[in-house]
Each structure stands twice: as C-alpha cells, then as structure tokens.
Amino acid sequence: AVYPLTVFWTIHDPAIHAAITIAGDERPLTGSSSCVVKSNEQLSLKLGPSAQAGLPAEYRLEQNYPNPFNPSTVLRYALPVESNVTVRIYNILGQTVTTLYDGMQDAGFKTIAWDARSAPSGVYYCRLDASSSSGPPRAFSKTAKMILLR
C-alpha cells in the first residue's frame, strides 16, 4: 500500500455491526465515512455482534479530514456520556459561520460533515462544546483549525 491510505465504507443496514481498528484505536463503522491510515500501522476489521465497540473513555475532537479541503470536510468527535453538544464553525475573525449541531447526543463516536460551498477560501475553526447531561458534571471544549482552499 501507498501511505497515507484512506479507507472508505458505507453501511446500509443498521443491524450490521462493524468496527475498524487502526494501531489499537477501535472505531465503530456506521453510515458512510472514511478514515486515514498514516503509516504502516496494524489495521483490522471486525464484522458481526462482537464488533460493537465500547463507548469512548473521554471527550475528543479529531482533526478534520481532509485538511486543507474543498468544498467539504468531515469532523469526528467522541462523547463518553450523553451530552449537550454544540459544533460551530468560526471564521478567522471569530464570527460564527454556521452551527453544524446544537442539542443532546447519546454517548458514542460521532461524524459530521461541513459543506463549505458558500464560504470563501480561508482559515476556519471548528469548536466542539459538550457538557454531560447527567451524573457528575463533565465539560469539554476544543477547537480545530481548518483550511478551505479553492
């Protein structure tokens, strides 16, 4: 293989349980998405009932892919517990460009796409704010820099 290697998938049947593990990091495969294998890392695929990945141990916002992008990009994040989530895109001036999600989400691994066809080229920031809805209070906030190139 030539690295980086991009793995794409589409799961049409929600009853199918699948997970991919790259260098020990297991992710459930749902819907249509992709992931990148950056180097000669161990890669495995599980299909069937045993493939249900556990819930993430901590909040996480991953770097968008691709980056730079044109015209759309995918953002992945993890929620260890049910949380009130806001995912917003900001321009370099700190102005809100769009809100991709604002509401409650179950715990798990999440994927969201931003179609930036109407946005000009430039630097943008994706900010994830999440706070637990029950149990001990937990809060998380992280920002990722993104570049839209036309």
Task: Annotate the secondary structure layout.
Elements: E1 5-10, E2 18-22, E3 25-28, E4 32-37, E5 43-47, E6 60-61, E7 72-79, E8 83-91, E9 96-105, E10 108-115, E11 122-132, E12 139-148
Antiparallel strand pairs: 1-4, 2-3, 2-5, 6-7, 7-10, 8-9, 8-11, 11-12
Q: What is the structure about, briefly put?
A:
This protein has strands at 5-10, 18-22, 25-28, 32-37, 43-47, 60-61, 72-79, 83-91, 96-105, 108-115, 122-132, 139-148.
Strand content: over 45%
For the biggest sheet, the summary is:
4 strands, antiparallel
Number of helices: 0
Uncertain stretches of 5 or more adjacent residues: none
Instruction: State the helicity in percent bands.
Output: under 10%
Account of the protein in words:
By secondary structure, the protein is mainly β. 0% of the residues lie in helices and 56% in strands. It contains no helices and 12 strands. It has strands at residues 5-10, 18-22, 25-28, 32-37, 43-47, 60-61, 72-79, 83-91, 96-105, 108-115, 122-132, 139-148. The strands form 4 sheets. Strands 9-8-11-12 form a 4-stranded antiparallel beta sheet, with no helix packed on it. Strands 3-2-5 form a 3-stranded antiparallel beta sheet, with no helix packed on it. A 3-stranded antiparallel beta sheet has the order 6-7-10, with no helix packed on it. The chain is globular. The mean pLDDT is 88.
